[in-house]
Design a protein that fits this description.
alpha/beta; Rossmann fold; 7-stranded parallel beta sheet; two-stranded parallel ribbon; binds nicotinamide-adenine-dinucleotide
Length: 317
């Protein structure tokens, strides 16, 4: 049986990816350190159903502490999802976790992968944050990255490490620049999670800035489909690809849609714009469409509805 390895398997995206791979008949090794960037209880819940499946093996530990040569013996594809995510926490003292969990961890994994001749693909979870405030929207991969947050800097550095290991050692990397992923299990520090939770508790939601910022939102199932395609597409090795939801939406309009979905009036509290947040993001996905056959399938309304249902399960309606 083909074995695929996922780092960050207990996280939002990694746990969905594991579930899909198991459903497709792969054996999955998942690695996670269950750190406390957010309540590890969420992570335990994310892996609970995975642990019941016989083709799933969980390695609980830090990337730096793992014997990779042994673990990668039968692995064909690595999906490197583990990272210290989040833009706002990356300033100040928090930065140390970003260099360790993003840059150092990626280098350790790439080094191990470079000694693995049987490895078919190394899919790296990058981020739209590498673009910063790009002047061209939608933004294509040809635009020079210009991060506006320390987090974005570490994701760009990791991407560059991927490029080096591809060019020098032939590690078959593919970097996917996700644009704001949402859906069930979304991290509790992310906007939709916080919005839905506040609405459920009939509290006001905080909007950073004037609400006129735009985002390209990607439903998690579409991000997973991109990963699966990146693992097999012939022309993908060495490429950096945007993965977006297919349309750019003004935040204030998303909140209007949320009001309709939840059937509750949302109290909006405007707070100062957070440092490191890009004003607009929009993905030009034509390269991913061409190389991966990627086409987002889930509309924002459908995706938000699924996330609202999940939030009600988690926090009780
Ligand atoms: N969610 C998004 O909107 C988004 C957008 C762009 C990029 N990304 C990237 O996608 C990936 C997954 O994001 P997510 O939202 O699922 O994050 P997440 O925080 O839910 O998951 C990451 C997991 O990695 C684990 N981890 C971190 N460092 C580790 C280490 N050194 N060793 C072992 N485990 C470690 C954490 O415990 C966590 O469970 C990350 O690389 C993130 O930077 C996410």
């Amino acid at each position: 049986m083909k074995t695929h390895l996922i780092t960050g398997v207990a996280g939002f995206i990694g746990s969905h990816l594991a579930q899909t791979l198991l459903e497709q008949g792969y054996a999955v090794i998942g690695v996670d350190e269950f750190n406390d960037y957010y309540d590890p209880q969420f992570k335990r819940q994310n892996v609970a159903a995975l642990l019941e499946q016989e083709n799933f093996q969980l390695i609980e530990g830090r990337i730096a502490d793992i014997n990779w040569l042994e673990l990668l013996q039968d692995v064909e594809v690595i999906y490197h999802q583990a990272a210290q995510a989040g833009v706002r926490a990356s300033w100040g003292d928090g930065f140390f976790a970003y260099t360790e969990r993003n840059v150092d961890a990626t280098q350790i994994l790439l080094e191990a992968a470079s000694n693995c001749t049987h490895l078919k693909r190394f899919v790296f979870a990058s981020s739209s944050s590498v673009y910063g405030n790009a002047e061209t929207l939608p933004t294509s991969e040809a635009i020079c990255p210009d991060p506006v947050s320390p987090y974005g800097i570490t994701k760009l550095a990791s991407e560059q490490l991927c490029r080096l290991y591809y060019q020098n050692f032939g590690v078959p990397i593919v970097a996917l620049r996700y644009f704001t992923v949402y859906g069930p299990r979304q991290r509790p520090d992310m906007a939709f999670h916080k919005f839905f939770k506040a609405i459920l508790h009939r509290e006001a939601i905080n909007i950073y800035g004037d609400g006129q910022q735009t985002r390209d939102f990607t439903f998690v199932r579409d991000a997973i489909a991109a990963n699966l395609a990146a693992a097999t597409a012939e022309k993908a090795p060495g490429e950096v690809l945007n993965i977006g939801g297919g349309s750019r939406v003004v935040l204030a309009e998303v909140i209007d849609a949320i009001e309709e979905i939840t059937q509750r009036l949302v109290q909006r509290r405007y707070v100062q714009k957070a440092m490191g947040d890009a004003r607009h993001t929009a993905a030009d996905i034509s390269k991913a469409r061409e190389i991966l056959g990627f086409q987002p399938q889930v509309s924002l309304r459908e995706g938000l509805t699924q996330q609202w249902q999940w939030i009600r399960q988690v926090y009780g309606s």
